[in-house]
Amino acid sequence: xxxxxxxxxxxxxxxxxxxxxxxxxxxxxxxxxxxxxxxxxxxxxxxxxxxxxxxxxxxxxxxxxxxxxxxxxxxxxxxxxxxxxxxxxxxxxxxxxxxxxxxxxxxxxxxxxxxxxxxxxxxxxxxxxxxxxxxxxxxxxxxxxxxxxxxxxxxxxxxxxxxxxxxxxxxxxxxxxxxxxxxxxxxxxxxxxxxxxxxxxxxxxxxxxxxxxxxxxxxxxxxxxxxxxxxxxxxxxxxxxxxxxx
Amino acid sequence: xxxxxxxxxxxxxxxxxxxxxxxxxxxxxxxxxxxxxxxxxxxxxxxxxxxxxxxxxxxxxxxxxxxxxxxxxxxxxxxxxxxxxxxxxxxxxxxxxxxxxxxxxxxxxxxxxxxxxxxxxxxxxxxxxxxxxxxxxxxxxxxxxxxxxxxxxxxxxxxxxxxxxxxxxxxxxxxxxxxxxxxxxxxxxxxxxxxxxxxxxxxxxxx
Lengths: 246, 207
Ligand SMILES: [Fe+2]
Ligand SMILES: [Fe+2]
What we know:
The complex is a heterodimer of chains A (246) and B (207).
Chain A: E1 3-10, E2 13-19, E3 33-38, E4 41-45, H1 53-63, E5 69-73, H2 79-82, H3 85-91, E6 96-100, E7 117-120, E8 125-129, E9 132-138, E10 148-152, E11 157-159, H4 180-194, H5 198-209, E12 215-217, E13 224-225, H6 227-238
Parallel strand pairs in A: 4-5, 5-6, 6-7, 11-12
Antiparallel strand pairs in A: 1-2, 2-3, 3-4, 8-9, 9-10, 10-11, 12-13
Helix pairs in contact in A: 5-6
Chain B: H1 17-52, H2 57-110, H3 118-169, H4 175-201
């Protein structure tokens, strides 16, 4: 079963990580879901696939009133990101789904109506959550051609979708990266193959380096914190991407 | 999540709805193909009657009637087919709603009692499912009525085929050939009758 871990709290402002599901069938890629709670509202980042909906929903409900969900942030269009959309809408029909304008007419194949989607322009946008301002940061071509990360300047957390993802062996179930050089080996193949554009990557590294980030939280694998954040950005900047094999 | 809870507010999930529609469609296709055969057979019979001349006047009239019957039957089947293709959408809606409802029910069960919003979500889902089922049921009724109407038409076809047999007896030197044609008619119509019986037993919604 999945569990929600509080990774940041400042009074009414919280980040929950729903991470590392050890009971899920092995043929489904393990995903992390994140919930930003602020005041009376909550935003769910990359809610995941249909198959894991029950465990994500119950993990979320254990820590936060699910009727407070105001929106879903979908970094991109992949099934492991957002194929559960219809189920979240079944629970709360007025949920808003923030996603790249590029996927606005694709995601309804997973559920929702025209009024469900808030298209994010290529340059990004501010998403408001009960007074808190979150930034949708462009990350196009990393790996999806319409791709966004979510930055919380107050909590100094960057939700980075598939960037920073590591496909960890089953016995590596720590929430935070413990040993960067050991961890990053499990991220290398993934980034080389999934990230398609070197130019987009360099641009992202440059922009993100200028942000104040305490935690970089990816959709797969463990969370980078403290010095590991910049370590990751440097590693990524130097990595050759868009290749089939090393 | 392996097996979703089978009960969602007393509505047992049904399986094979789409398979049932496929069966209905296949049966309709078979009848359409047979109707096409009757049409050709009737054309041949009309020519045969012409060659037989005065000896087969009555047979000629009946062949014309049978040809009209085949055309009516084709029209009936076209409208039946339209109905079933419309029902694919409705059935898919129900199947999807049931799947969603079952997964959500599992999520609510895992979350334990008293999750805020759970009761409302259940009620909304049950209402939507009930609405979809009402729609499917009325479609089912229409389909059944249409099948019954077609069955009556086919009864008429049976009468025509029997009369053709009687007329064939007066066909003089063409009698044997005419008899063969009218026996073929009777056989094909019996086949359509059987298909319609199967079709009449199919239900888009289980009671
Ligand atoms: Fe992806
Ligand atoms: Fe992913």
